[in-house]
Amino acid sequence: MKEKMNFNEIIRKYNLAILLVVFILISAILSPNFLTLGNFLNLLQQASIPGIVAIGMTLVILLGGIDLSVGSVLAFSGMIASIIVEKMNGSGASILLGCLAGIAVGTAMGLLTGVLIARFNLPDFIASLAMMEIGRGAALLTTSGNPVFGLGDAFHILGGGFLFGRVAISGLFWIILTAIFAFMLKYSIFGRSLFAIGGNREAAMLSGIKTKRNYALTYMISGLLSGFAGVLTASWMSTGQPTAGNGYELDAIAASVIGGASLSGGIGSIGGTFGGVFLLQIITNIFNLVGLPSYYQRIAKGAIIIFALLLNQFVSKGKGGKE
Amino acid sequence: MCGENILEMKKIVKIFPGVKALDQVDFDARRGEVHCLIGANGAGKSTLMKVLSGAYTEDEGEIYFDNKLLKSHSTEKRRKEGIAVIYQELSLFNELTVGENVYINNYPRTGLGAVDWKKVYSMTQELADGLNIRIDAKAKVSSLNMGQRQLTEIMKALACNAKLIVMDEPSSTLSKSEFEILVKVIHDLKEKGITIIYISHHLEELFVVGDRITVLRDGKFVICKNVAGLTEDSLVEYMTGITICQIENEEAEVHKVSDEVVLELKDMCNYKVSDVNLKLHKGEVLGLYGLVGAGRTEILQSIFGLKPVLQGEIRIHGEKVNFKSSQEAVQHKIGLAPESRKAQGLVLLLPVWENITMVSLPKFKKKAKINYQTINEECRDYVKKLNIKTPSIQTVAGSLSGGNQQKVILAKWLMKDCDILLLDEPTQGIDVVAKEEVYKLIREMTGMGKSIIMVSSELQELLRVSDNIHVIYDGKQVMETNKANFNADQIMHASVIGRCTK
């Protein structure tokens, strides 16, 4: 009995790591090109932008909320940045201004969503759904739906550049942000308050935690990260694309959940989400390497989500309990 | 009246990781008997009943029911054998009718296989008549009072031909008259030869309904005796292992209340209460007594900044305050242990340490990051000091027993070093032993110079721990009395009729 419990605990704890190893092994068997350093650096680059968005999503999910607006915020922020860079001919000042403006727009949108929820008690789902529509509409409106070209080579470095010729800069951003937010969740008062608020909002409020402020702040951070991801997207593609980031919200939610987050709040981790994003990216990657049509990818992704959650539930069941 | 044994549980052992929840427990019940099962929280009552119902599988031991050895371990099969369990939080469907609830597991069918609704309701009515109870078979459960819901559960058990019914704290939500009906029904069930296992924290009830009483303590069998030979005091002794006079001796030491007023309410009104005047002195326990819904909780809410003060004022250490939020109250060193531990007091899925540090986390910040080492040390200190029974401080709060959860909440405010503590029903639903520990803690806190306002529906405990008692009736303060003049009858009276009778 006791040994079995330990076995379950190991699976529960390393659930995601086990899944990752299994998929890496399967992928290595399916394609000789998979288990190469080049391919992994490739993966890092591809996963970086959805990964940065997913960090914000995980924070929101920790609260027990959900942010459907991330994809639209990403697009609108990217458009704002691109337009500024393009109008000012890609000069150094324009890049700085564009980036800041893009991030600021994302931050403002996130804050607005957060205030609507925390201060005016709109449901998370509805408030962020509304912001998703507004953001997408605004992104399309800026150029009547046309992409913005001619952003210059200098701007491309941020999201499309490589260090030592192979390590994606955007990937480094992702890793650094993951480390920062993982640290924040464990070692800051604000970070711990998210677990308390997500676990029981009323108890947190009655313990003197500023629930409303922190709630709005978390959505603001999600907006900030999406805004930054939008700037990176525009830079990586050297194009301001008003349709960018379509469906990112669902990928980010999926990654958080695969990474162990609970949609009812209070449970989740940034490290887990990092793994979740990576896992989803591996699936895309191996399908591309093997050359299967992308339709299969989506079916496989859905199956993985179900499988990851079932595995989680299956191992939690043997828990038992007293009285 | 009582026949041979219908149930024999022999040497039952149940082990959870780290805990022996049941240690060689023997339990039997006779046909047509009301057998009471008591013990402090964590003594193993629920575990034993879950083993009986098939929800848990025993690690050792045997269960004989109706002269047969029970082998299968499914609640479904046990129910078919005739074992029914009525849980404290009833398992009825509020939006369905009484009849639907009673026959939900075995609807009578017509020849075509459709549900025979006529029969559902006529059979439900027959069951009700058989128990001499008046209940409309077609009424929705949501329209019933708690007593009628309990009776619906009993009918549901009978509809499955139960021979033995386990009732877990059946009286906890019942009014006095509803309880009397329950007692009658239990008597009728006995006449029919049905066995009842009756679990309750309210010892006085056992002498009304019970035939025999079995006491468990720390997962072990203590005694099984006829009700006739027992008293409430002796039961408490068996449950706690401590004799009553020991407890009362501690009580004897009188503590002194200083003249310093720490909190004052002057003609305070909020949406529920009006013109409340009270003075809380340093080191005092001020009891607020009244019926549920009289406005006691609402007074605490205004003090804690949750409900705006509409008229009058609140003064803390002489300074007029007008809190807009709980954060301001916390900054003024006021703490609140809310009425519902699980829904308002704790974050159940977070570990013990995180609940204890929830208010005072900022003080553990060192060089811009939380210092977990000092958190661990201090939390272990509090766990030891308050005797919180938990495997470790990493254990999630939700898995502790009610009394220990309450202690975690108190630890939370102690760690913040609060001057004024507002305790709303601090001992609700916790067992005798844990209650004593909470009283002891309250005394220790006042000894440290903290002041306490305590709301309780149990007059006995307020009489024990309070220095002053205020009675609230329908949003108004109707009586105020100090320890020297406590008179239970008068207080009770004032709370029910709304005026003081001298």
UniProtKB/TrEMBL annotation, chain A:
Protein's name in the database: Ribose transport system permease protein
Alphabetized UniProt keyword annotations: Cell membrane, Membrane, Transmembrane, Transmembrane helix
Natural source organism: Muricomes intestini
Main location class: membrane
Membrane topology field: Multi-pass membrane protein
Gene Ontology, cellular component aspect: plasma membrane
Subcellular location per the Swiss-Prot or TrEMBL entry: Cell membrane
Entry's transmembrane regions: 12-31, 51-84, 96-118, 163-185, 215-237, 257-283, 295-315
GO molecular function: transmembrane transporter activity
CDD domains linked to this entry: TM_PBP1_transp_AraH_like (cd06579)
TrEMBL record, chain B:
Recorded coiled-coil stretches: none
Domain (ABC transporter): residue spans on this chain: 7-243, 257-499
PROSITE patterns listed in its UniProt record: ABC_TRANSPORTER_1, ABC_TRANSPORTER_2
SMART domains assigned to the protein according to its UniProt record, in alphabetical order: AAA
Bilayer topology term: Peripheral membrane protein
Gene3D superfamilies: P-loop containing nucleotide triphosphate hydrolases (3.40.50.300)
Name of the molecule in the record: Ribose transport system ATP-binding protein/D-xylose transport system ATP-binding protein
Naturally occurring in which organism (per UniProt): Muricomes intestini
